[in-house]
């Protein structure tokens, strides 16, 4: 690196312009440059502009070279440098080095994600002798709000929701002192000049403070939680609802009032020691908990103490996070127990951000609110991660991660600006600009009107923040996705090219892009396992519903080499909510009612299915009435969970059946029982198309036999996971073989789709594929589920645009 930098600077004069691109605004980059320049006695200036940070410097070449080296090796903690470009500077530079006002211009920089409280600020708010003792909005350039308060760029205070709070004399001095860690920290504030926290009653009555042990309003809020109250808390990206997680009656009341039947609640604890009472915490998981992103981390609930079952019904994991803001740090100062810290909303609605809306909606759930007078500009939920195959992997990408960009791989440098509209559920969108992909925060299900409105608002915000003017749009080919309908409408109105992308191809392309697979690289086998996606028309698709696919794919195209057996979904979308429907359809497709009655009539699932309207379902399946065939791995999980009796009637939330099935897996069986008892799945060929498919008839006979033998469901769940991983590997080996003597058809396999959020399936499949010398690509920074689809759409659209430009 030193030699390269020496060559870069040897032909430059003593005055040099240094352009730094990436996430370099609002992270303390300019004061870092100032400090380095002062130490080297260089002259010049540094400023923010629409492209990042611009440095103009005069001095000995060796000192300039040293400055560039230090910027690369010692950037601020929250910075992410994309490129450093050097050029001669012709102009006058005064003696000394100064930080100058931001310049406007087209945006080519990045907005930093919100960052959890740093150690220095955490110590400060707990120090009785510090000026910001117990100030709940303390921050510096190394931590604090970013995306949640920003309205535009350059990222200056005037462009944030801190604009209404003029700096006091002391804060202004810190803000203007380059040597201070708060130099140009845009959200800087203190007790004298900043936002104020306030404990209020939603019914408008005065709070009776003498009833509470308190140091201030924040402390009083925790006193209420300790007494069993539910309290609404205005956090960074939206309101939260909090209650004592060790009080079953409080948790049950919150679940009932929030209308959240069974979905696990997120938890917050004061420190790692509290979390270890309830969960095992590895080194990697502790690092994730303590990171600047401060996500919710799914942990094995195997600690010496246990929380009420109602916190996470049917789960073997708990989702914990540490206090991520000074408000949370102060809130938990006297709390040695975990607290439920869930999103402030009614079930399936977006998180509340507006104070009036909080009173109207959350007032039905909580009597008290810990609020404040700083507006939330942008709704951002908590990120969720888990450890699998030795890496922390993203399940929901939001606070702390969005809108950090992903560099597109080699070959995408000439891609035009593109906007990909993403899926309908777990909605995100993605911008392509300057060879990078900017993935929005998780936004939820677009069928909810308020969520769709927020999605449209964020499209406008990101366009402004990133100076984005798309030349092409991308969307899912599903005809009814609201995101796709919006893309088609905008493409027509604005006369832009529209690239419609098959759902599972997008899953695989997202995995390729995240892993840096070059545009010109050979095709890989993509194994895409999820719930539902619209298949293309044509010989192997027919517009059917896909969900368990083996695609020979690159960014440009794909070939469907294999699939799961298509099985009817009686009731259509209703079958996604009621697992027994999938169980019935599978058993009828494999065995038929007569055989089931003859061999398994003593089973409870037979009696339960006999009570259902079978004649109606049989007619629907026979006549193809609202019973589309689906090659869905997700629906197979639903059917098996129903057969084992762990989620038979109804799923309280999307993916509940599969999550419960994973949660009960017997670890001893996974580790010690041989593959000979794993449930067998065959690979015959589909009639008509001739492509191989996963046939589960032998698996169903084995499952029914184990039910007759009263095999523990934990053992059965393990055998199912092993069998599924086995057939994925067997299919990969089958598809890799060529008929001639040429080498294998592929040597790399990409695993994507929401089913690979299942840690056991991912670990079993990846390990077995690697043992057979395949190169395996998986997701980590981008979700494997639909939260990553927009990135795949963007990469595919970019490839098409590059090819079209080359052809011209």
TrEMBL record:
It is an enzyme of class 6 (ligase). Pathway: Protein modification; [NiFe] hydrogenase maturation. It comes from the Bacteria. GO terms for molecular function: ligase activity. Residues 15-101 form the Acylphosphatase-like domain. The active site is at residues 30, 48. Belongs to the carbamoyltransferase HypF family. This is Carbamoyltransferase HypF. The lineage of its organism: Bacteria, Pseudomonadati, Pseudomonadota, Alphaproteobacteria, Hyphomicrobiales. The gene is hypF.
